[in-house]
Specification:
This protein has five helices and five strands; from the N terminus they run αααααβββββ. It has helices at residues 8-28, 31-53, 57-73, 77-81, 89-101, and strands spanning 102-118, 123-136, 140-155, 158-167, 174-175.
């Protein structure tokens, strides 16, 4: 596990230290202070590069979630099913049914994504909100605000959805997947 999911706090710290060393150098004119300021800038840049090269399991699961929801937004049901475990047939059925009921997804915005690793890193839970506008066969064009909790399982080198809970957007209580709430 990497010490931070956000590289900016250490980068800002290194930048502030560089400014402090440079400010002291302007009055003392000791070369070591100028070298220390430059070293802090290099460390800030190295922190950014290192952070971008390290991908945590949480980041992998979040990326899978965003790719899955993007496939669903594009109405690519087969592409969406690639993210769902073949052993989770009821969930795969829900996705197919949703694909049949929706004629077009106009907008889809994923927010408030939270990823939690479970079972010593072999499972994960994602909690997120999905808001947007879609056209459904039964109700026409409709705005929706939804909240979801997905359980993921590591299958080989990839993460696959094994359970889905739709939550009431306000109370957080479990509701049926096709509820109009």
């Amino acid at each position: 596990m990497w010490f931070t999911d956000n590289p900016w706090p250490p980068i800002v710290l290194f930048a502030c230290l560089a400014v402090v060393f440079f400010a002291i150098w302007t009055s003392k004119r000791r070369n070591i202070l100028l070298v220390a300021a430059a070293a802090m800038l290099v460390l800030g840049g190295a922190t950014y590069v290192l952070e971008k090269s390290i991908v945590t399991d949480e980041e992998l699961v979040e990326r899978e979630l965003l790719q899955m929801t993007d496939a669903f937004h594009q109405h690519d049901i087969d592409g969406t099913l690639e993210f769902i475990s073949v052993q989770a047939e009821p969930i795969r059925g829900y996705v197919r049914q949703a694909g049949d009921l929706l004629t077009e997804i106009h907008t889809l915005r994923i927010t408030d994504v939270d990823v939690e690793l479970l079972a010593e890193g072999s499972r994960a839970k994602t909690h997120f909100r999905a808001n947007g506008e879609a056209t459904a066969i039964a109700v026409g064009r409709h705005r929706f605000s939804t909240r979801w909790e997905l359980t993921w399982q590591r299958e080989g080198e990839t993460w696959k959805v094994i359970d889905v809970e739709r939550l009431d957007p306000i109370s957080g209580e479990t509701i049926t997947p096709f509820s109009l709430q």
